Amino acid sequence: MSILIVLLCIAFLVVLITVFKINPFLAFLVVSILTGFLLDIEVAKLTTSVQKGIGDMLGSLVIVIVSGAMLGKLVAESGAAQRIASGMMYLFGSRYIHWALMITGFVIGIPLFYNVGFVLVVPLIFSVAYRYKFPVVYIAVPMLAALSVTHGFLPPHPSPYALVGIFKADVGKTLLYGTMIAIPTVILAGPVFARTLKRIDSPLPKTFQPNAVADDKLPGLANSILSSLLPVILIALTSSGIVTRIAHFFLTIPFLNIGNTLRRFLGNDFEVTISAFLGDPVIVLLFSLAVATYSLGLRSGMNMKKIMDIYSDAVKDIAMVLLIMSGAGALKQILIDSGVSNDIATLLGGIDAHPLVLGWLMACVIRVCVGSATVAGLTAAGIMAPLIPSMNVDPNLMVLSIGAGSLMFSHVNDTGFWLFKEYFNLGIKDTIRSWSLMETIVAIVGLFGVLTLNAFL
Questions:
Q1: Which domain holds residue 281?
Q2: Are residues 32 and 327 in contact, defined by beta-carbon separation less than 8 angstroms?
Q3: Transmembrane ranges (predicted)?
Q4: Cα(321)–Cα(375) distance, rounded to whole angstroms?
Q5: Is the C-alpha dihedral spanning 147, 148, 151, 155 positive or negative?
């Protein structure tokens, strides 16, 4: 009976968001409280569970997501993203321009949130289409596929980073595995699939082409790439153990005597402690933001007030994302406190399917019904997380499996669908044929990538 209640409540969540157009944060709160009542959680403890779920979710996310949003906004406003794009186009030339756009989308997509990235790259796509006379959808899909994959697969993007916390995964391993899966996924969903879209005719509207920053005012290419990718570089270095070895080298130099001093405060494993501290995503993002504030801001002639205004705007852009995540955290806590996870575990134990496939499928269904990749990923994770200990599955791969499923078949209930349709002036049929199928390819290839890695790990 408890499983039926959960399914009905999730269905009610879908109805509230899709039919009645209720804000997802409010819908999550209403459904969380309703689910708690129906699952016989004591009234006195019900609000406590909701508050704990919200607090636990935001406590581990808010610094990373806000810092990441600020970094991404600065990358966009400083012209660093434009510099990366122009550099890639110069390197690849017109013949391989769709590959240049794919790589540019991947690099830009790592620090930028999807909606910000989308609006940023669309003028670039139009300008390339004008210059090289290519069908605009043909060159748009590779770049947008890369943006979509980074949004769904790679921390520190909100959804994958939240899933890392929910499943107690390792952010470095998730980033490494996610990159390994993302590369073939982007290639198949981008340049390869785009070859089938050359006949889609889309006029080039001038409305969505803001003035580009003059080349002489753009930051340098090396500076732009390093500042944008610094969080990924630092996480990779700490996860690989390089930072630990460097710390060990410097801290064991006899005449400096630093090691003995730190050993008294941090213990014998102080190198590991320092590496863990430096590799924490919060420290990585704050350090990267500090570097970018100088390298892309102050060094480019911006004053501190303008930089802080950019950061304030960035927080406004992702405020609702944080609220949606907190609402999903409330529902997750209700499912945990009610003990319904044990009933779900019993049910899933009788299904002859791999746990990674189950997580992916659950995210797919919610995504298609609700339209939001973030809502789909977090809702599926809230159901699957309590079952991980009994499933003998790598939590890092579960993050990626659900992330892939959360991108399945974007259609009319997804804002990304309408962004693509309206910006490129397409009909519903052509939007489904291009955008929706591209997202479906990302989801399916992503699952195959996860299962392939699982076979070798």
A1: 2-456
A2: yes
A3: 27-46, 58-76, 96-129, 136-154, 174-194, 229-256, 276-297, 318-336, 356-385, 397-420, 432-456
A4: 10
A5: negative
The total number of structural domains in the chain stands at 1
pLDDT of 91 > 70? The answer is yes
122's tokens: 């669309």
Distances (CA, A) of 391 to 355, 359, 402: 7, 12, 15
Report pTM.
0.75
Q: Which two tokens stand for residue 74?
A: 């600065």
**Could you report the per-residue pLDDT of 316-364, keeping only the tens digit for each?**
878 887 888 788 888 888 887 887 766 665 565 566 778 899 999 988 9
